[in-house]
Write a structure and sequence with these properties.
It is a single chain. This protein has 306 residues and is α/β, with parallel strands linked by helices. The chain has 10 helices and 8 strands. It has an 8-stranded parallel sheet, with helices on both faces. Helix 8 packs parallel to helix 9 and helix 9 packs parallel to helix 10. The radius of gyration is 18 Å and the shape is globular. The two termini are 29 Å apart.
Length: 306
């Protein structure tokens, strides 16, 4: 892989759900040596520090958790993403998955500036296709894909001037989808690949088909990698554990295929809760997967002693 200018951006965001801890995620990635792993692969890496949310009052909502704070994060992250994308490839170190409300919003604006289509690869146990009106939990980390595709109900959030067309989205690793999300998604052109499909047919073919579509359209590719894409036996540091997730072998294959495609233009690393980790193993696993996306191969992988 050729040298890439990469900017690490910390997002200590913890407003998308009630269980605290994801605000420690950016420092966990730094401690686990994400910057060193990428530099060792020949890339130019800079750390822009942490984003802070726009000012907000924090008035409680009768049903939604931390609504105003999440809107404030969305505004700040959209601006940061649009700016950084103009000069380098950003890696957003989260933080809960509500950060994608802002990161993808800003990346989509940058793609429009470049007159190129944006594709989104959602590596997650969940579709996160709720709206504020349909979420039973009131946790807004379950709403980014609803917002980014232009669904109604996001009053107060920045306008979605560049909604992501459903046919430009692939969701891989699904195994916990609410009924309301399932009903809404079934009539769309989203490529949703659940774990049964992966068990029966493998993970490479649907991913290859999606990447080929990105390439054919000269698209930009945003990848949003949730810790719970992986099985909790290997990545326990997440508050939304769902058994039966991807193995490390499958995770590395996905990231190596992304690397081989040369299409990656931005990356989210989300839902790492170091408070729930075991000797840093989840943070290290996410760093290792990121390294695979940027050129590390099987013979380069270090032996881990936890």
């Amino acid at each position: 892989m050729t040298q890439t200018d990469i900017t690490l951006i910390g997002v200590p965001m913890d407003s998308g759900k009630r269980r605290r801890g994801c605000l420690m995620g950016p420092d966990a990635y730094r401690t686990a040596g994400l910057d060193t792993a990428l530099r060792d692969l020949g890339h130019k890496v800079s750390d822009a520090g942490n984003v802070t949310p726009a000012p907000f009052e924090g008035k409680p909502h009768d049903r939604l958790h931390a609504l105003e704070e999440t809107i404030a994060w969305t505004q700040a992250l959209s601006e940061a993403a649009r700016t950084v994308c103009a000069t380098s490839l950003p890696i957003f170190m989260g933080g809960d998955h509500a950060l994608a409300l802002g990161t993808v919003h800003g990346v989509a604006a940058h793609a429009a500036d470049q007159n190129r289509p944006l594709f989104v690869l959602w590596l997650d146990a969940h579709t996160d296709y709720h709206t504020p009106a349909t979420t039973d939990s009131g946790n807004l980390h379950g709403t980014p894909m609803g917002y980014l595709t232009g669904r109604d109900g996001f009053d107060g959030f920045p306008e979605v001037a560049h909604p992501i067309p459903h046919e430009r989205i692939a969701m891989i690793g699904l195994r916990s989808v609410d009924a309301a999300e399932r009903a809404a998604l079934q009539d769309t052109d989203v490529a949703y690949i659940d774990m049964r499909h992966i068990d029966e047919h493998g993970i490479a073919k649907p991913l290859a088909a999606f990447l080929e579509r990105v390439k054919e359209d000269n698209g930009m590719l945003h990848v949003s990698l949730d810790v719970d894409f992986l099985d909790p036996s290997i990545a326990p540091a997440v508050g939304t554990t769902v058994p039966g997730g991807a193995t490390m072998r499958e995770g590395h294959l996905v990231m190596e295929m992304i690397c081989d495609s040369g299409l990656l233009t931005s990356l989210d690393l989300v839902e790492l809760n170091p408070f729930l980790d075991e000797r840093g193993r989840t943070a290290q696993a996410m760093v290792d997967l990121t390294a695979s996306a940027f050129g590390r191969r099987i013979f380069d992988r270090p032996t881990r002693a936890y």
